Amino acid sequence: MFITYNLRILFPTVLCLVMSHEKHSSLSLSASWVAMRKHNNNHHLELLLLPIILFCQPVSAIDFVFNGFNSSSVSLYGSAVFESRILTLTNQTSFQIGRALYPTKIRTKAPNSSLVYPFSTSFIFAMAPYKNVLPGHGLVFLFVPFTGIEGATSAQHLGFLNITIDRSPDNHMFGIEFDVFANQEFQDMNANHVGLDVYSLTSTAAADAGYWLENSTGSGSNGNSSDDVKKYFKEQQLNNGKNYQVWIDYADSLINVTMAPAGMKRPSRPLLNVSLNLSEVFEDEMYVGFTASTGQLVQSHKILAWSFSNSNFSLSERLVTTGLPSFVIPKDPFFRSKGFISGVTVGGVLLVVSAATIFWFFSLREDKGKQGREQKWRIGNRSIGHTELRVKRSRQQQKDSVKKMSSELEEMERSIRVCYQEAQRLL
């Protein structure tokens, strides 16, 4: 009687668990076991179910959370290093590639099947510019079938692919790019976008980097009117040194990509919401991680935290999003700002020119007054020879005055040139 009763409860429960496993629901089987235990007081049933649940637990299940990195977290390639538990992919060196991958492959497809396992990942990144240096190029969250950086080039290729294997289905590469350079070769929409890269850096879908406000409607940025974008969309500059959090969810051939400033609640409306079948892209097992590059344009690409799971879509809530370092370049004091220096320079030049003009005007006026008085005196005294002498003397004085003024103007020109060169040096 006891066995019959328990089997009557056991089989439907096991059936539900197996079905949830086949559908790859967001709850793991072990989580289902914990939930069932809370609501079932029959300890005999628990003991019977536990071995079955552990046996049914998928070998593909993987969960990890990194609030900081070390050598046991990820494997590094190229220029990637750890800096105070921050994963730094590139630095100020030109034309370099930095890559970091989870140390072991993860199963991305069911064995002997085209069924792709769902996954959920979230990470916090920053693109830190250097002062007085043009920033570039961007980073990619990627799935790749091999380790190392072979087959990748720097600059506009983002350390993801190279021109030889780009657009080749044999490369089995998939990535979400965060790109700050508009490259015509890959038909980039602008120099600040997020894109889905399947086999290629020519994105299958892309959107301006940013997030949608909570009162906006729709499922993504595609197909929205310009009025909606202006009213509800908040564009974010990727390489301003601020920290941004990204959420990427994939299930049932649908991928959602969302981003927002770190510490902000996840926006309910995704940035990208795209139907995407990865069954022909993924191999059965893949490495997962990040890659970035510099070219003539350089910036530091940093990953501050990362979570990944193919069984728990709420794991991202365990990331630490506050109290993180900022990589925004500090502003110069006001008296050293470009506006202040330019204003002082222009103001000084105008002041000198105005003073010179006024001085020149009064000098000419004074010379003309003297000449007029001398002419009156000469006519009154009717002294022809004496008049000629004074006219010659007056003309000579006028020439001397003009010569003096020319010398002063040349001196002012030299002073203005020095001021301008100093302003250029400070700017």
From TrEMBL:
Residues in Legume lectin domain copies: 62-313
The species this protein was found in: Salix suchowensis
UniProt xrefs under Pfam families: Lectin_legB
InterPro entries from the UniProt entry: ConA-like_dom_sf, Legume_lectin_dom, Leguminous_Lectin
Bilayer-crossing regions: 340-362
Keywords: Coiled coil, Lectin, Membrane, Transmembrane, Transmembrane helix
Coiled-coil zones: 395-422
Keyword Ligase (UniProt): no
SUPFAM superfamilies referenced in this protein's UniProt entry, alphabetically: Concanavalin A-like lectins/glucanases
UniProt similarity note: Belongs to the leguminous lectin family.
Name listed for the protein in its UniProt record: Legume lectin domain-containing protein
Keyword NAD included in the entry's annotation: no
